[in-house]
Specification:
Elements: H1 2-5, H2 7-13, E1 29-33, E2 39-41, H3 51-93
Antiparallel strand pairs: 1-2
Length: 102
């Protein structure tokens, strides 16, 4: 376990080659070279992506918004609603039982 946290190990493994972080400056250079043997920029901008990647990223954002809104906002609300409405609904739709034993 000690080998995983040593500085020489994680300096070699955890190398950031590209990022979309807003904390990264536009003029920072990565350690990766492109086909012209020039160092690539570290930050990837939305404007510098191809049109297909822009379209796919937009679709991803729409689907992620739907997923988050469904599972993190609607599911807790629906579970509270179902746990409240289920006893009320079963009370009105179950046949009455006879408790008189005579």
């Amino acid at each position: 376990m000690k080998e995983l946290v040593e500085k020489k190990f994680y300096k070699r493994v955890l190398v950031i080659k590209h990022t979309t972080s807003k904390k990264c400056k536009y003029d920072e250079i990565s350690s990766v070279k492109d086909e012209n043997d020039n160092f690539r920029p570290l930050r990837v901008n939305f404007e510098s992506r191809p049109m297909l990647h822009k379209a796919l990223f937009s679709i991803y954002r729409i689907l992620r918004t739907f997923y988050v809104s469904l599972f993190y906002y609607f599911m807790p609300f629906s579970s509270i609603l179902i746990s409240t409405m289920f006893p009320i609904a079963t009370r009105f739709y179950t046949p009455p039982t006879c408790t008189n034993t005579n």
